[in-house]
Design a protein that fits this description.
2 copies of one chain form a homodimer.
Chain A (H helix, E strand, L loop, with lengths): L1 E5 L3 H13 L4 E6 L11 H6 L5 H4 L4 H8 L2 E4 L1 E7 L4 E6 L5 E5 L2 E4 L3 E3 L12 E2 L4 H14 L3 E5 L3 H12 L3 E6 L10 H13 L3 E4 L3 E7 L1 E7 L4 E3 L2 E4 L3 E3 L2 H5 L23 E3 L6 E2 L6 E2 L4 H14 L14 E5 L2 E7 L2 H6 L4 E9 L9 E9 L5 E8 L3 H13 L4 H4 L16 H14 L3 E3 L4 E2 L2 E2 L2 E2 L1 E4 L3 H5 L6 E3 L5 H4 L9 E4 L4 H12 L5 E4 L2 H9 L4
Parallel strand pairs in A: 1-2, 1-7, 2-3, 7-18, 9-16, 10-11, 10-16, 11-12, 26-33, 30-31, 30-32, 32-33
Antiparallel strand pairs in A: 4-5, 5-6, 8-17, 13-14, 14-15, 19-20, 21-22, 22-25, 23-24, 24-25, 27-28, 28-29
Helix pairs in contact in A: 1-9
Family (chains A, B): Belongs to the class-III pyridine nucleotide-disulfide oxidoreductase family.
Protein name (chains A, B): NADPH-dependent 2,4-dienoyl-CoA reductase/sulfur reductase-like enzyme/rhodanese-related sulfurtransferase
InterPro entries (chains A, B): FAD-bd_OxRdtase, FAD/NAD-bd_sf, FAD/NAD-binding_dom, FAD/NAD-linked_Rdtase_dimer_sf, Pyr_nucl-diS_OxRdtase_dimer, Rhodanese-like_dom, Rhodanese-like_dom_sf
Amino acid sequence: MRILIIGAVAGGTSAAAKARRNSEDAEIIIFEKDVDISYSGCGLPYYIGGEVEKRSELVPRDAAFFREKYNVDVRTSHEVLDIDPNGKVLKVRDLNDGREYEEAYDKLIISTGARPFVPQMDGVSLDGVFTLRNVQSADRIRDFLRSKSPKRAVIVGTGFIGLELCEVLVKNGLEVHMVEKLPQVTPGLDSDMSNYLRDYLEKKGVILHLGTSATSIEGEGTVSGVTLESGETISADMVILAIGVRPETTLAKNCGIETGQSGAIRTDKSMRTSIPDIYACGDCAESFSLITGKPVYRPLGSTANKTGRIAGNAIFNDSLEFRGVLGTGIFRVFDMTVGQTGLTEREAIAEGYDIEVSHNIKPDRPTYYGGKEMVIKSVADRKTGRLLGVQIVGYGGVDKRIDVFVTAISFGARAEDLFHLDLAYAPPFSTTKDPVMYTGMILDNAMRGGRSIADPRLIGNGTYDGEEVQIIDARAAGQYMEGHVEGAVSMPHETVREKLSGLDRDKPVIAYCNKGTTGNAVQNILLNNGFTMVYNISGGNTNYRTQKKKRD
Amino acid sequence: MRILIIGAVAGGTSAAAKARRNSEDAEIIIFEKDVDISYSGCGLPYYIGGEVEKRSELVPRDAAFFREKYNVDVRTSHEVLDIDPNGKVLKVRDLNDGREYEEAYDKLIISTGARPFVPQMDGVSLDGVFTLRNVQSADRIRDFLRSKSPKRAVIVGTGFIGLELCEVLVKNGLEVHMVEKLPQVTPGLDSDMSNYLRDYLEKKGVILHLGTSATSIEGEGTVSGVTLESGETISADMVILAIGVRPETTLAKNCGIETGQSGAIRTDKSMRTSIPDIYACGDCAESFSLITGKPVYRPLGSTANKTGRIAGNAIFNDSLEFRGVLGTGIFRVFDMTVGQTGLTEREAIAEGYDIEVSHNIKPDRPTYYGGKEMVIKSVADRKTGRLLGVQIVGYGGVDKRIDVFVTAISFGARAEDLFHLDLAYAPPFSTTKDPVMYTGMILDNAMRGGRSIADPRLIGNGTYDGEEVQIIDARAAGQYMEGHVEGAVSMPHETVREKLSGLDRDKPVIAYCNKGTTGNAVQNILLNNGFTMVYNISGGNTNYRTQKKKRD
């Protein structure tokens, strides 16, 4: 058995290791165009920033390691030029000496990864314009920062790589501009959650240019600025293009392997491509949603490891099948963590779900123990009660809650299940009821308990979604005075029972407090007193303020 | 509807709040013997230690709050003397003035909590002998530390309260002795996991007296020492009894309410006791295991909140039923976190399960990003593949992994499911494959892939569980020289393929490395070369060393 693998980063090396675990006899060869192998692509921003000091920490394994430990022949600086699926032969070029030769395979695994998308515009090749793809490209950015001491940078794109690099540059003392085509940062988030991140970035001094594109990069030899659609030019000493990545599928397409709508290689659950004996894994392969079953393209190191292992196993048996992804992602920018999993509100609506949405604002630990608030936006399917997706922004413990949600959603959890989880409680780690449990309670109360949630974006001056409503501010009168929802009257929680007669029972009532808890208490009082149309503002005044804030 | 509640800490106040959410009309009265209500019992150690500075942070709500916000009448310093279930009347004493009166109920909720167990021995009433039950008892310890500046303390009991207090006292400069009847610290853990904690505590300077009991407390008026079974007296300026708690059930028992084997009040899933219209919740109530369905007693603030809410709801409808507990617990002592959920190995064996056990040692984040190792012991049912329980000791990210395991076990996860979880990966938060995933892979490989795991406790000099075996050390020769498993020969991973002929195919082989990964790689080589009896040491030499270490 002769197994050839194209690409030696996360997917390819995982496939090789798993194949070897299945068979001592198989001959396994990996071809890698690059010089580095098996490195942590997700660690690159931290390497540039110096949090990871040594290059060797990012690239812990070399070809000798794979030879000695796994009896795998890793050929770096070897480019595969062509796949002949009929003859089952690869044409390979040794980039060290230009020599070309052929290698025959019984099984082939394509793990060619992804490349940063570079838009077609003037100036992308100027000195000082970077993309981040591999360790060498990280070296170039790191060297540039140290040798050229740039003062101003423009980052095009506000995905997690752009934001992680943004932090690095700000910490290096640069003035950082970020350009994003969409009217929000981080396209993967719902816009309301994106607003929290946006406000935080601006507080950190990042200058955002949203809803506009870069049309050209200026400079003579070296970059001097970026011109936007408006005609405005931002002067800059360096530019990073972080607009996203595209699957590297040239070899696969050239030999007739099918790709999906995403442009990535289509596979079955054993990572088999449309051509017999050829498998694909990692960032060049299409994935599918565990929730909808539909194809998605979500290139990530963790998924590449997973699909690599599955491909390396599938050559020998079908005991391991890919179950799809939830599209989980997480990043840290300065002290803020942003995580998400499953469907966003936007995606859930596009899929035709009738959804319930909640914004739950809670500290990650007791405030007496230094807890800091996180905002958990959750989306559930009203028909089944099932949780569809979650987005969280916060400062501590976000990764924990996202992973708990990931696990719950993977097992088909309904909102009502979350309250029952026997999660670990001690003050250094959580609140007595964990924020995850509150999220379940809020959603379940809305779906089955008649505790309707109002979307702050739909609130006008005394109206909700265009309809006339009564808005009551359940906080202390002093808080109302400092700022309140447009059209709201002050009716502190402890006075509501006495003031019921002042409310019109035929008109919907919207209650709110700072974050939602007291608003819910008042909602309960009204419902239990016979009012029928009572809403609580999702995430209270905190969320309302964030969504209604005048920006620009 | 008249609802009376006995006890105003976690369970009672949760019940009251939920009852009010269900009904505006119900009259709700809570009687509390103590002066403080609704405080965080789990926060008391941190209050004593000063991490929580103000008493008011621990006790954020008072009777006025419940009156104003929930229209609930909380009567502090009011002791319920007697329950008359036929007349549906309580006899109450106002401790402020000694007045006694009766209150009739339609529904009664007993939430009398638990009290620290105080053994019958001389000296327990001496000055300087403490238990930790409520805020006042915490005040006493705090005041004693500040005013008396004790130099030496003995803590009897090594459960989480004892350990949290141990940290406080060590940080206050005291020499701390801990006395534990069992031969291990923290009775709830399996002894092998307890060994990690034990070594850590000793490194922190805590003096442990295990496998012995305190027989008397010495002193004249004020404590001067603790005498152990051996006759040895440890001199001490203060003593804390933290041997565990007992459910406070006197009132319930006196009126004929059934208790379970644990001594706590038996309830159904709606928290109904054996007497109509009387409910129980919180630390006085028995719980049951979500895994076995059998009664357990696991008093915890988080469970009290949960059962309180269920009791408060059950008065009105059966929409919310208690699903039981996994026995999840977590504590931090110095920088170490210890978490557990589900069945221990000991419990699983006692329940008759045929189990697979793994010790997975992995960093919580990439080591290039400051990751520190945690040890994850997991127990699975070989028959079904289901995960039964997990214990973790580590320094960071333990709470996250425990909560992911809690969620997985709650949904009946099999070991093989863990690899497929789309957990959130970025270097500040996790490794590319999360430690949770590795745990699932190791267990599944053992149960379905023939990758048997050897328990280091069963390894003798060239034997395993009494049988003669070949033990091979797969690490670099230099590591072998520095110390190795008794009876092992050095056979570094990269040399194994050449040295196969030197091994006896008819005798079992046990491979190992430092933590398990390379041992598994060698195990694969042997199995794929036709060897049939091949084990990998669980947790490798690290775990072996910890388990075989000579102590005392």
